[in-house]
Amino acid sequence: MQRLGRVVGLFVLSASLAAPIWSQEKVDLETISRIRYEGFRNSKVMDFASGLMDNIGERLTGSPNMKRANEWTRDQLTAMGLSNAHLEAWGPFGRGWANQYVNVRMTAPDVAPLLAYAKAWTPGTNGVVQGKCVRAVIEKKEDFDKYKGKLAGMIVILGADVEAKPITEAPFRRESDDDLAKIAEYQLPAAHPPFTFADFLKRQLFVKDLNQFLAEEKVLAVIDHSRQTSGGGTVFVQSGGSYKSGETAAVPELTMALEHWTRIARLLQQKKDVSLELNVQNTFYDDDPMQYDTIAEIPGSDKKDEVVMLGAHLDSWHAGTGATDNGAGTIVMMEAVRILKALDVKPRRTIRIGLWSGEEEGLLGSQGYVEHHFGSRPHMDEPGMKDMPTLLRREAGDVTVKPEQAKVSAYFNVDNGTGKIRGIYLQENEAVAPIFEAWMKPFKDLGMTTISMRNTGGTDHLSFDAAGIPGFQFIQDPLEYETRTHHSNMDVYDRLQPDDLKQMAVIVASFVYETAMRDQMLPRKPIEKGLPKDDKKGDQ
């Protein structure tokens, strides 16, 4: 899951409004009872979990495993009885990549194995290599001059000094009543978001310049450390280079466990010679520049030309098996449609599931799908935007809506880990509040109690929201998502919470069913207008 979104205003219905709303909005309690029974007594969610996380594993966009995951989910949805299960192309994306082998050990002044992972889209070492280590702190282009001519043939231990602090916070946490009350408090939106998409692109350009500098200096390899809040063998790993053709990094890059990196740093600070032996085997794949989303449907009846969508991103990072980010969302959505199909419900509207690739690189798969079917913004020629979707870039201009857009009632998303659902973000769509309040009430005993006007970011619902389709992300218990599993080597099957996943699937199935059966489509909010291209507020 991307963490670039911004938080804006919050809202929750008062108790005085809830009672009459509950009586006005239709709720099919009989079907909800059947959904609960099927979801809690006949669940297949952990079967899906083992199939995806254990049998397939990591799913970096463009990798062979991503292709296997697309095909496996398509075949599973077909076996459930869904219609038109297929893979839908988007792109071009660029180069595929996968790591096959990593071995890192210290050879001087001690001999010791070290824990490290290859960073995505960086090359391997072409066999075993050995080299001396050198420290470098390079945070801006002006720092290049400090190291010019000093790094050839060296293994660069990259980064500022860092301390491995004791882990004092409980790594596993559920939202308390006070936490949920804070989520339900109104807050004015920030005048300027703390981190914009323009900032993200600026950082990408610096990484590109840094990789070119390291290549020109003929560096043997680069090793940075996992984030300071990690420890105990948890290593947070993402990319070290671009997936775009023609922009591949030329130097192998790795992320090392914090405690192992700091040992090397201390020895270098003491003017000791430190040597490492590396063997990294990575493979690039250029056979297909396109990538794919998995799509399938439960056909509707009298309103079959209208659609209710649910989805999650299928791709992951590569150090773990993408269990909580976002295998959890994927298997919950698969289980939700399985429940509805097992009950042989006859939805009025067509129910369509979408499992997206390219989310970790910028919601690319869902943006590609929405741009193809529902609406898009003009192309942008600025650096870094070639062949990139512009749907989330308001400075690109206004959205041009396609006919299919008017037929989608809503899109529901899960992408905040394995924690159970505690409520739903309204994405500033106040008109749906009374509807969701009624639909949420049967799940109070399962812990779903909160409605928030929060415009939460970083998940695929933003692609639909940008095109004027009501898009929603559920509020979930954080558990150990940020502290242990998000983009780390510990994002594996064992960190999943089976009972929470069952609860999630039951609630998602019920919300999707109610949306499919409602007389009217869900109310919409206006599409956000484009910004002037020189507007400095940045991306939303």
Structural class: alpha/beta
Runs in which pLDDT lies below 50 for 5 or more consecutive residues are 3-23, 536-540
Report on the biggest sheet. 8 strands, mixed
Rounded average pLDDT: 92
Proportion of residues in extended strands: 15-25%
Please state how the strands of the largest beta sheet are arranged side by side: 1-10-12-11-15-18-16-17
**CA gyration radius, whole angstroms:** 24 Å
How does the overall form come out from the CA principal axes?
globular
List the total number of helices.
Answer: 14
Would you spell out the secondary-structure blueprint of this structure?
Layout: H1 15-24, H2 29-41, H3 45-56, H4 64-80, E1 83-90, E2 96-108, E3 112-114, E4 116-118, E5 128-136, H5 144-147, E6 155-158, H6 177-183, H7 197-216, E7 221-225, E8 253-256, H8 258-269, E9 275-285, E10 291-298, E11 303-313, H9 323-342, E12 349-356, H10 364-373, E13 375-376, E14 400-401, E15 408-413, E16 421-425, H11 433-440, E17 450-452, H12 461-466, E18 471-476, H13 481-485, H14 498-517
Parallel strand pairs: 5-6, 6-7, 7-8, 11-12, 11-15, 15-18, 16-17
Antiparallel strand pairs: 1-10, 2-3, 2-9, 4-8, 5-9, 10-12, 13-14, 16-18
Helix pairs in contact: 1-11, 2-14, 3-9, 9-14
